[in-house]
Structure formats: structure tokens, C-alpha cells
């Protein structure tokens, strides 16, 4: 690449809204050069519930990123999640009149179009069509068929879809914030991009990204994506439990969770009495650290039991030889790995974003896995592609160029 390329990821989550500016340098390395975040309002479990509040959160995060980077943001790659996200494995084939046809990209595009036709529905939008494998002449399994010779090409894909209205609502608040949406990346795909290793995908692994309102799951086996799922379970439930049990405000409950919370009561070194105000202007109450931890442990145990059942439904649970990777903000909870291994009965590791450079160590925390993965997903698309560059203090606008549009449509299909 002769010039660097600069682009922005926007993660509108249930707990936080985060905008991160990434720069892909001449050698293909990703650098974080701008960052803004704020507590989310108007978003619950990945869905817009108050547009005006959501717009305020987006504008605040973007303004902060612009301020500390010197760039004006005009377009973003948008992370998207929610219980409406689904995935399905599909197969199809194309036969050729010639017995020695050299397969080209047009043939692959035609095969993808056949797969797409199976999902024609006014209520459903295809977000990703991810190839798993191809078969030549019903015999030879290949992973990059372009340039090979055959009379028939079969393809198997994982197709990820979402509900049109849900996608339109989140896009609308982004656009009403003054931004264009150049592409969409589904949350678990983004998280997997930033934290998983290829060996894990080969052996069989499940990544679980536990955020404020959702737990996003992606399952890989033999190097391929097999399933994606989003479950309405997140850290906000723990905060609500603490608030309800001790009759304190959610803000105070959140602070207590972060300051004193661990995932398993067996690791409490010593119990202590904690003083906290039930509300900002009310009297101080006393509660034991053990009770806080007990509340967290109960909820996490229930969440992991539900998530295990969801993974078992894929039929691949016993073949996840690389175990489980936990990421997302809740993965920062001390001793969560120990509790998870007890419930899942598998090896568990905490997944942190990797393979990028940043001006602050905070970006290597699990809570930024999704937004960093979104940048990395885009970076892999931009590498060695002549799609424009940043040569001024203004972000290039992906939406004004037909070339860009075609390019990212292609990326969506061929990732």
C-alpha cells in the first residue's frame, strides 16, 4: 500500500457507545489514532428504545474521537447485535456446459447470488455470507476455487441475517447523528476477529462476548464459522440484581459491582462491611462484601448455564476442543474464568484484542473486543486495495463513491 487509510468503527452498545478511529499504515499495520466513548442512553439489548437519547450518545462519542484525533468523521463501520440476528448454513452449486471450465470470480458471485435468493424476505436482511468450503466436481474440497478447473462448483456458506426494521432503526439514529454507514459488521464476528487464533478455530471454539445487555456467541470448527447467536443476557442484569437486593440506585449498584465484585465467593480473602448510600441524597447503609459477590455469582452461574444450553443446541459442544473464550466487559470480572470452567466443564480463557497498535493500554481490554474487531475486519478488507486514502484532516467519505460501495458489498459477501 502506498498510502495509509483511515476509517472509523462505531459500537452502539447497551452500556457504552464507542467510536474508534483506526489507521492502516503503509505496511498494513492497524493503529488506533482516535477514541471517544460515553455511557449509552436509548439502547437496550441492541435495540433502539429512545432515538433522541441514542443520538446524543453517538454524537458525544464521535465528538470526543474527533477532538483527540484531529479528524472529522463522516462515515462509520457499524457494529450491530441483537436477538434478531440469526445464522444458517446453506449449500448450492453451479454446473458448467464445459467439462474443463476455469472458475472465475463471476462464477463465485453467481453461486453467492443463488444462496442469497433463498433468503429473499421483506423482513430479513442478509448481513454476511461467509464461505465455509467449496467442492469441485462432487469430489475435491477446496477453499479458494478461483483459477481452478472443473465442470461443477458447489459451495457451503454460513449466512447471517437480521430483521430489517431492527437494522433500519439503529442505522437511522446513526444517520440522524450526521454520519454515513459504510458497512455493518455483526458483533460476534467482530469480536472473533479481534480475539480468536486460527488454531482455535481449527480445533473448535466458542467465543462468548458478554456486554451490558447481550451475550453474543460465535462457534467455529475446522476453521469455519458454524453458528452465531445473540442472547439477552448481560452485565446490566447483575447491576439490577444488586440494586434490587440492597434497595440502592442502579448507579451505586454499578459502582459497587466494579469496586468489590468478583465472580466466585470461594475467592473472597476476607469479608468486610461496606458503607454505601442507598440513594445519592439518602442515608448510608451497611452491607457485606460477601453478599455482593454472592449476588454476582448467582447471576453469572445462571447466565453460564443458559449459554451452555445454547451452545449444546449447535451439536458441536463436545467438539469444542479449544474450549470457550470469554470477552466483553463482563469478562473483566475477577475469577470469572474459574466460575466459567466449572459451569462449562471446558478450558476457558479471557479473550483480549490483539494485533494492533494503540496509544493507550486500555484498548487491549476485553470490553473493547467488538469495536477493535470491527476495525480489524475493515482493515483486512482495505489491505492492498486501492479504495482511497486520507491525505487531509478530514475522514474520506465512503458513501460518496460508487467504487467504495461495490467494494464493501463484495467484502460483505466474501469475508
Give your account of this protein's structure.
The protein has 415 residues and is an alpha+beta fold. The chain has a domain at 86-162: 2-Layer Sandwich (Dna Ligase, domain 1), CATH 3.30.1490.110. Helices cover 34% and strands 30% of the residues. The protein has eleven helices and 20 strands. The chain has helices at 51-69, 105-117, 164-175, 187-195, 198-203, 235-246, 250-260, 289-312, 336-344, 369-382, 402-414; strands at residues 5-12, 16-24, 30-39, 43-44, 47-48, 75-80, 86-95, 101-102, 124-136, 140-142, 149-150, 152-163, 180-186, 205-210, 215-221, 224-231, 273-277, 284-288, 324-327, 348-350. Strands 3-2-1-6-13 form a five-stranded mixed β-sheet, sandwiched between helices. It has a five-stranded mixed β-sheet with strand order 16-15-14-19-20, sandwiched between helices. Strand 2 (16-24) and strand 3 (30-39) form a beta hairpin. Helix 6 packs across helix 7, helix 6 packs antiparallel against helix 8 (289-312) and helix 8 packs across helix 9. The protein is globular and about 85 Å long.
